[in-house]
Amino acid sequence: MLVLLMLLYYILCSVERFQTLNTSLERNTSKLKEANDISNMRSGALSDIKRSVDASKKILMDESKDGVRLDTEKKELEYRLISLRETHKVNVQLFKEEIAELREKLTKERKTRQTVEESYNDLQITIQHHLTQHSEVIASLTATMNESKTQRNEIA
What we know:
This protein has helices at residues 2-63, 67-155. The chain is mainly alpha-helical. The longest helix has 89 residues, at 67-155.
């Protein structure tokens, strides 16, 4: 009976860990989607800024000597754009790795849970088998005892 209670406790703990991992996986998936959305917004904004800088550069170069300054600003913005893209790629890769780890843990938990359930079912079958054997032994002993009483009564 104690073994059954321990197995039941282990199953409940496994279900709770499964739920925790599942919640964590959903949360990380949501974070990854948010990071992608932010990166897409930044990329669009940076593209708009780049086009605006290019147009301004042309106008100012025609009108003044600020072409060098605008060229420097363009290079800085291009560097920022490249940096943001690289950061985004790193973040996406990190989220993918974390999701893969969580999926692997979840798979292991599922296998463990299945093994525990199979052990529990085997234990139930074994207990049922033992109960059946005990019932048969008791029935056999009762029949033998009744025969003995009948023989003793016949002798007496």
